[in-house]
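pasting for ref
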Amino acid sequence: MWVIEDKGGAIAVILASLFFVGSFPAILLLLERRGRLPQHTFLDYSLTNLLAAVLIAVALGQAGGGQSKLNFFTQLSQIHDNWPSVLFAMAGGIVLGLGNLIAQYAWAFAGLSVTNIICSSMTVVIGTTINYFLDGRINRAEILFPGVACFLVAAFLGASVHSSNAEDDEKKLSMVESDVVVDRGQTVLPDPENNGGEGGDECNVIGQAKPGTAEFLIQIEQRRSIKVFGSGKLLGLVLIFLAGICFSLFGPAINLATNDQWHVLKTHQAGTPHLVVYTAFFYFSLSCFVLAIVLNIWFLYRPMAGVPSSSLRAYFMDWNGRHWAWLAGLICGFGNGFQFMGGQAAGYAAADAVQALPLVSTFWAVVLFGEYRRSSVKTYLLLAAMLSMFVLAVALLIASAGHRKT
């Protein structure tokens, strides 16, 4: 089994995790904005997300071979002794799966960058505080908790950015010509040069609208699979906070699975070795996979948020963008694995510096999706304040990193 033994190595894998975890939401949102059903995307994503966990567990958890009690395959055979820790790991996978599912709809309603900044801030405020005490306070509290406070401020600023940007969009849409129809589930622009087009439609989406314009917003709405125009203003924030609560709990669950702070192994079977991070990550990903498969097959036939219904046959036939969904699953899987590896070495509270992912996702939101283009000065000021506070918070969390002795 390969183990990270120094704080520098832990910080390196945490930074790698930051890039991966910050990038995969952009791929999922890109597919949704191109019209691919979220149920199809999430089923594909879940397959490669589990594959990443298996690759990490076999390659690193079994490194060196032998019959060590800490090797991946050996620990799999010890489930009759270590099942209490396995349950913690699987509980973490379940809450992450729920969080990812809710977040996929929140990205559509509230935007990629704001959703991630609020979810990340909640994860740090709740999850990091729990992990600090679970880890026996190995992180420097005088640095860690000012960073947590900065994340809390960033969350409120993120909500303000969302509200301000929504007002900007409403003003843009109110100024569009009267012949544009804007309604939930129907947003079209008449195209006099198109006499029906593909499928016999008399209306066609506008061609190359400039990012940030009302026409651009309408173009996105017409193509995307989740229709957001006409929705309640609070729906996006409600989804964000539900996802944030779920994301806050998966880190502490993995912490308990690998370090047994509640002594469930000693109570059940004295002398049973703790789950190593690779074994815990495998069980974590397995439960996340099962939950995602069950829920998304259900949503194929009983969709929510106005998404069209589908079927297993339609899913298997849908190859449009499937390779991107597979890539997103691999990226997220390796990102989660690196985060847990860094947390096991330097403390899970410090590993929550991965929640800097909005810095990455905001970059993708601006570059790929044209978010915040032609917004008001108020929105830009709030966005700058939010990101500045977030950068300060992440720096403090990294500076608080400790070193686990066992």
